[in-house]
Amino acid sequence: MSRPVVIAHLYPQELSTYGDTGNIRALVQRLAWRGFDVEVRPVGVGTPVDLAEVDLLFGGGGQDSGQAVVSKDLLQRGPAIREAALEGLPMLLICGSYQLFGRSFTTVTGTELPGIGVFDLTTVGSGQRMVGNIVLETEDLGRVVGFENHSGRTLLAPGQQPLGRVTKGFGNDEDRRFEGARTGACIGTYLHGPVLPKNPRLADHLLLAALRRRHGVQELAPLDDAVELAASATAASRPQ
After folding, report:
1. Beta pairing, strands 38-43 & 5-10
2. Rg of the chain (C-alpha set)
3. Which of 31, 39, 100, 143 is the one with CA 20 to 30 A from 155?
4. Helix ranges restricted to H, 87-152
5. Does 150 participate in catalysis according to the annotation?
6. How far is CA 184 from CA 47, 84, 118, 125, 181, in A?
7. What is the pLDDT of residue 1?
8. C-alpha dihedral over 156, 160, 164, 168, to 10 degrees?
């Protein structure tokens, strides 16, 4: 392969809580183990980025104040990001980024931050924090484990696919028992932890989507994921 795999990291200063940068490290390492060169491009407020050169887009979580700082900048990027999503660019959006990639996020104080509409969902802040270990069952990725810490209640519009069904924890909204959202190759979720080191199948799902799209790779060389799977099993066995 003549060029590196390019991962764009949205707003690493403002949106990167609860170990979310570990997701970047997991992606880079799993690519490196397979012999791929990787370039991570931090994208801050006002930083230009050509999504035509990007293979995978990542955004992490943050406080409401951090989301407010990046909101206007993200709205300006919205049309290009939505077009890239339609063209199959894989994305992983965690917590605060997940909320801003929906239709809107209304903070607990009543401030409404418009989203960019990659996911058909809305989020409203509440007075209750949903904190603890969380386990999902998904249709094609098996069990997914992580740690959630959010006060936003997220409502999926009819037809919006969730990431999975909650078997332990809260998820988007404890009353509906769904967590996250999936649109094309884009995944949004509240799972911190970081989520990818404990979920190698999810990590490889994103990587294969990136490599298949522009590098012609049809399958990934297997890795020994014994440590990762043991961590996943331990996380799943912990009380909420």
Report:
1. parallel
2. 17
3. 143
4. 96-100
5. no
6. 26, 11, 10, 27, 10
7. 57
8. 10
Task: Exactly one of 9, 150, 192, 205 is catalytic; name it.
Answer: 192
The beta-strand segments (E) located in the chain are: 5-10, 38-43, 56-59, 91-94, 104-106, 112-114, 121-137, 143-156, 164-168, 178-179, 181-183, 186-189
pTM assigned to the model: 0.96
CB count within 10 Å of CB 124 equals: 18
All structural domains of the chain, each given as residue ranges with its CATH number in brackets, are 5-237 (3.40.50.880)
End-to-end CA distance of the chain: 44
Question: Does the active-site annotation cover 186?
Answer: no
In 3D space, the residue among 133, 127, 210, 230 whose CA is nearest the CA of residue 179 turns out to be 133
Angle between helices 200-215 and 21-33 (to 10 degrees): 60
Which of the following is catalytic: 9, 95, 150, 205?
95
Q: Determine phi and psi for 68, rounding to 5 degrees.
A: -65, -35
| Count of Cβ atoms closer than 10 Å to residue 59 Cβ | 30
Q: Residue 224 is encoded by which pair of tokens?
A: 């020994």
- pLDDT value at position 67? 86
| Cβ atoms of residues 15 and 68 within 8 Å | no
